[in-house]
């Protein structure tokens, strides 16, 4: 759908009133791109849900879960499915990225949202940490999962962040790209072990960093070794383009 006409989406009244805990929505008023992964560079809208089940030390969205530093009452609002659909369908942009935090913590309530987005002609990408298997109702045509398992060098205990059954469910869905953040060639060896152990493909590598300088430096360190493995590489376009500004 390329118009911004209001669309009549047939949601059950109970579904329309369901509320999601949202950190921020962006891309309508101030346009942006999907900055990462297979759709890097595509115009995109973002719904960032609040709350996470992990506590990565290198997390760049701690305002979604770290209540020792942030106030949940200031950093989150409850928004209905119908309100989020009205917001997204006010824009002609086709791609809606649902991120977090960990969006699949709220996946039951995401089913009617995703259904409504698809009915309105949108396509949907999830940014997920890969610890929670997706409900079959979410793994449908028009939906892709950018699954980003958090490795030790990202500041997370893999006993918590690598959940084999969930990773294998994503792989079996045929709708997942496995996007690993890396900063060294040693990280790539470890990513290869995980990918082999859990049969994760396709593998995407993304340089760690929240400044253009850090992204460029990590890209130079990683690019040859990623291409030698015939893996995919993505930058973080929003960091390069918008200096990692919140809401871009
Ligand atoms: N432009 C832009 N692209 C993104 N892709 C994934 C993001 C995320 O925070 O999950 C993100 C983000 O925050 N901004
Ligand atoms: S999984 Fe993602 S949102 Fe959650 S703590 Fe780690 S980096 Fe942050
Ligand atoms: Mg981000």
UniProtKB/TrEMBL annotation:
**What does the record note about the cofactor?**
Binds 1 [4Fe-4S] cluster. The cluster is coordinated with 3 cysteines and an exchangeable S-adenosyl-L-methionine. Binds 1 S-adenosyl-L-methionine per subunit.
Whom does it interact with, and what assembly results? Homodimer.
| Binding site residues for substrate | 33-35, 48, 99
Natural source organism: Streptomyces paludis
Query: What region holds the Radical SAM core domain?
Result: 39-233
Tell me the keywords, alphabetical order: 4Fe-4S, Iron, Iron-sulfur, Lyase, Magnesium, Metal-binding, Queuosine biosynthesis, S-adenosyl-L-methionine
Per the record, the GO terms for biological process are: tRNA queuosine(34) biosynthetic process
The name of this protein is 7-carboxy-7-deazaguanine synthase
Q: Which cofactor does it need?
A: Mg(2+); [4Fe-4S] cluster; S-adenosyl-L-methionine
Q: What family is reported?
A: Belongs to the radical SAM superfamily. 7-carboxy-7-deazaguanine synthase family.
